[in-house]
């Protein structure tokens, strides 16, 4: 019987098949799912901010795109995942509030998505699918068995990517 493991905000976890991973309430945060297509070892990180070096209080590695993805990858490799077989799916990064000020500092969702893509590219991890942007929150559930990412939204339905 498959278990569904919850991943909190600024948190990460890895599972062996057939277990699944879920994270609730992705707004400007981004959920990154890594999946080894051969062993099916999978992981999820729920990041809040783009880069750890931009913040003084950066001890929680899962809070940032750069350190969260690196830690998740490391944890999966320790579980037996094969580096060359790892692919990713990404969701979140919404612009949850409208600001009159169009400065970059308020565009956390978009900045998170850019940082995630940059970090995955640096690790040579292909992005197979994404559901990012918009102005609505998401809950995501990732199946280690199938590699499918279920994206649930309020007012925008449910889709599998």
Q: What does this protein structure show overall?
A:
This protein has helices at about 65-80, 110-120; strands at about 5, 10-15, 20-25, 30-35, 40-45, 85-90, 125-130, 140-145, 150-155, 160. It is α+β, with helices and mostly antiparallel strands and about 160 residues long. It has a single domain, classed as 60s Ribosomal Protein L30, Chain: A (2-Layer Sandwich). The strands form 2 sheets. Strands 1-3-8-9-10 form a 5-stranded mixed β-sheet, with no helix packed on it. α1 packs across α2. The chain starts with a strand and ends with a strand.
Structure summarized in a few sentences:
With 161 residues, the protein is α+β, with helices and mostly antiparallel strands. It has helices at 65-79, 108-122; strands spanning 4-6, 11-15, 20-26, 30-36, 42-47, 86-92, 127-132, 138-143, 149-153, 158-160.
Main attributes of the structure:
five-stranded mixed β-sheet; 34% strand; 60s Ribosomal Protein L30, Chain: A; 10 strands; globular; 19% helix; 161 residues; 2 helices; alpha+beta
